[in-house]
Design goal:
The complex is a heterodimer of chains A (190) and B (339). By secondary structure, chain A is mainly α. Chain A has helices at 10-15, 20-39, 44-60, 71-89, 113-131, 135-146, 151-158, 162-189. Helices cover 68% and strands 0% of the residues of chain A. Chain B has 3 domains: 3-49, no CATH class; 75-118; 166-335, no CATH class. Classes of the chains: A mainly alpha (190), B mainly alpha (339).
């Protein structure tokens, strides 16, 4: 879990006139942010727009940026604010995730049909399990997994006590592990 | 919390806790039989979950590349020229249109007006096409019977031809005489009548003076004396003088032509008086006839031909005028005429 360990702070580099780290950040983490917004219920096109908005905000804030927290946490704080603004614009009703706009944009699939089916099945099962989590637990789990944020960072993002974060994360992971183990046992029995 | 749950909590603390808490959890996990394995399994599971969540976004690489290019174009690789400004403006308008349904309605209305206005203007301002129509008109019967216009009296073809040839002959004769007079102008004797000279001599000198002039006299006809008061010799010389003027004018005055025609008619009646004078009268009448001023006349010599000078000498002798310098100059000129 060290995807957000960056060799150089992208915004400080931008301020010094070097756009390379910022472009590397876009290349390596744009997909993570799109996934974040997709998990929140945005359609793919909307998730792209929101991700672009996040990077634009980051780019425009480079001049006044002060590295007061870990860069990954800062990025996800900007992303959460963008999502909150989006919900306000849309009357606080997150749109349902739609696959209609992605049918012709499916990612490259494994060549082996059997392996592809098994991979899709596993992926689908894990996502289905995540989707069964309560919204409060799921928010903590996603920030920990996608943003690789620590307890304290998640607590600041969500505005809740750190103990609450630990509790929600614990119950989310325990529930997923049990459900996953039961699923594996069911498959073995079958 | 049972021991397994305690281990899970410690493993999570080791992964997500603060630095000091993480260190404590790591050391405590190290004392448990499955502690390190559980931590590693949890780390792998979280990383795998992150990958699968990213995969679940169903974001193709091609689409990601396009998106990334757009983002770079707006950030690190932004065009600072006027194209970049234009792109910013277009992006701004696009965002505003996307955000406001009312603005979209206004924009659509504006586009509709811009597109429709020229079409409507064309339909209003274009020229109407001529319509095909059939007109039926019924005329009331005329009160008087229809009488066709009588055709003009037909002239026989040979008569028309004769008139045309006569006209052509007159034009040819007039052109020929004009040429002869022009050729003679330089050789005409330059002599004036002495005071008290006979009227015939005066007329002869006057003709010489008129021939030497570069332009014909406009008042030749008006200056013509009353031909009824002239004797036959004077009438013959006056007629020659008038005919000279008539020929040299491009558009001779009508009164000159009329005076010449009447004088020619009178001269024709005097042809048989005295031999010399009669010859001069005959020559003048023949000349008037060739020019179309006299209907019928006896034949006569051509203009300033040798027979005319011979007749002039006889006429001068008949009237005792040969001693006059004017007559002698004219007769001497006759000997120098080209034959």
């Amino acid at each position: 879990m060290d995807r957000w360990k960056l060799p150089r702070d992208p915004l400080l580099a931008l301020r010094e006139g070097d756009p390379g780290p910022f472009e590397d950040l876009v290349r390596t983490h744009a997909r993570t942010l799109v996934a974040f917004f997709r998990q929140r219920g945005a359609a793919l096109g909307r998730a792209e727009d929101l991700t672009q908005e996040v990077f634009l905000r980051l780019f425009q804030s480079a001049g006044r940026y002060q590295p007061e927290e870990r860069f990954g946490a800062y990025v996800f704080r900007v992303a959460r604010n963008a999502w909150i603004d989006e919900c306000r614009r849309r009357g606080a009703r997150p749109e349902a995730a739609s696959t209609a706009d992605t049918e012709d944009e499916l990612p490259a699939q494994p060549e082996d049909p059997g392996a592809r089916a098994a991979s899709e099945e596993e992926q689908g099962r894990l996502l289905a399990l995540v989707a069964t989590l309560p919204e409060t637990h799921r928010a903590v789990f996603e920030l920990a997994v996608l943003g690789e944020l620590g307890y304290d960072e998640i607590a600041r993002q969500l505005g809740i006590p750190e103990g609450t974060v630990k509790s929600r994360m614990f119950y989310a992971v325990r529930r997923l592990r049990r459900a996953w183990a039961e699923g594996q046992a069911g498959e073995g029995a079958a | 919390m049972n021991p397994a749950e305690r281990d899970l909590a410690l493993a999570l603390e080791a992964l997500l806790g603060r630095a000091e808490a993480r260190a404590r959890a790591e050391s405590e996990l190290a004392t448990r039989p499955q502690g390190r394995a559980l931590r590693a399994e949890l780390a792998t599971g979280l990383a795998r979950s992150a990958d699968e969540l990213r995969q679940a976004a169903r974001w193709s690489e091609a689409r990601e590349a396009r998106w990334r290019a757009q983002l770079f174009a707006r950030t690190t690789r932004r065009d600072l020229s006027w194209r970049g400004d234009l792109a910013l403006l277009v992006d701004f308008l696009r965002q505003r249109l996307r955000a406001s349904p009312a603005l979209r309605v206004v924009a659509a209305s504006l586009v509709l007006h811009v597109v429709a206005a020229p079409v409507v203007a064309y339909w209003i301002l274009r020229e109407p096409r001529p319509e095909k129509r059939v007109t039926l008109r019924v005329e009331l019967p005329a009160a008087e019977p229809f009488l066709p216009e009588p055709p003009p009296p037909a002239l026989p073809d040979d008569e028309l031809l004769r008139l045309a040839r006569a006209q052509e002959a007159r034009e040819n004769e007039r052109a020929r005489e004009r040429f002869v007079l022009a050729q003679s102008a330089a050789r005409v004797p330059a002599v004036e009548a002495e005071p008290g000279a006979a009227p015939a001599t005066e007329l002869l000198a006057r003709r010489a003076r008129a021939l030497r002039a570069s332009e014909p006299s406009e008042r030749a006809g008006a200056e013509a004396p009353d031909w009824r008061a002239l004797d036959p010799l004077e009438l013959a010389l006056w007629l020659e003088l008038g005919l000279d003027q008539f020929v040299r004018h491009d558009a001779a005055p009508a009164e000159l032509g009329l005076a010449c025609a009447r004088a020619a008619q009178a001269a024709r009646d005097l042809v048989g008086t005295r031999p010399g004078t009669g010859e001069l009268l005959r020559a003048a009448c023949a000349r008037a006839s060739r020019l179309g001023l006299l209907a019928s006349a006896p034949d006569g010599p051509a203009l300033l031909a040798e027979p005319w000078f011979a007749a002039l000498e006889r006429a001068g002798r008949e009237h005792d005028l040969l001693a006059s310098p004017v007559w002698r100059a004219w007769l001497e000129w006759s000997t120098k005429q080209p034959r």
